[in-house]
Amino acid sequence: MSIKVFQKELADSFPSACYLIHSTDAFLLYDAADQLKKCLEDDNGFNMDVFDLKEKASGVEDIIDVANTLPFFNPRRVVLIRSLQKLKKADAKKLEEYLAEPSSSCLMVMLFEGQAPKLFDPSVMKSIKVIPLSVSEKDMAVWVKTEAERKGIKLTNDAVEQLLDSTGSDLGMLYSEIEKISSFVSQGSTVDAASIRETLYAGAEYSAFDLTDALNSKDSRAVFRIYEHMGRQQVDEILLGALNYYYAKNISFSAQQKRSAENAPHNLFGLLHEADMGIKSSHSFVIENLLCRLLQQR
Fold first, then answer.
1. Among candidate residues 200, 225, 240, the one where a domain is terminated
2. Fewest CB atoms within 10 A around its CB: which of 38, 43, 112, 164?
């Protein structure tokens, strides 16, 4: 997991002069910037400057001037550049000149959203520490546990499974749910799957489990009454995750059968898979259509 490299550098206070951190996931870059600020910014905030290239006010000349300015009562000044993917070619050449001979009293960290960029000459890139940030599917559970520990709580294995099944693989949404869970329990607590379910649906008049009961009873009025109330408080991804969790736990399917089901729209798991694709494609009335089709299932 590439995040381990980032954490190691962070623990060492980013010892190199220049870093380029890139990711296709905007949340990972946001989180990296947040951790950098917490770790490296001094109490007065005098020696950290953040520039976002999405903003017109952030000019490369200004960035270089700040990087070459001596720090104030601190051994290093920190310059954080966000949205490096917005850097124009002409400005890339100017920044490249600085990167070829960076200030010894400045740490420059550049954040790029996308695949590994080719902005600078290869000879200059040799002096830049490049860190790709990503979380693979097999590392997702480890990432969830690590983020929970950062918030001062421990998640059991079944709690991690419940959270992933209910929330999906969107890192920003997972982080948001972990933050919400940590606010509901005391520091140092161990959280199980039951606690996750309670937190996910805290304050809701109905839960996704009420919805599955109504579906099993083929009570269409109850199904849509429950969904109407839930829809005001829960995002579709969480509702779909809860349905997936319920059916996966309560219906016996082999792994091969489940894989085949995803290619069969008339099949139960095929319907859930199709709905997942619909939500990711921003289609309208995905859950409503899914509920109608689930009510028709025998």
1. 200
2. 43
Inform me whether the pLDDT recorded for 287 exceeds 80: yes
Distance CA 121, CA 37 (A): 29
Lowest mean pLDDT among 72-81, 226-235, 259-268: 259-268
Domain CATH code at residue 145? 1.10.8.60
Say whether both 159 and 128 belong to one domain.
Answer: no
Same domain, 257 and 166: no
**Structural domain span for residue 273:** 205-298
Q: Which residues of 162-195 are buried (b: 16+ CB within 10 A; e: fewer)?
A: bbbbbbbeebebbbebbeebbeeeeeeeebebeb
* Model confidence pTM above 0.85: no
Angle CA 168–172–176, to nearest 5 = 90
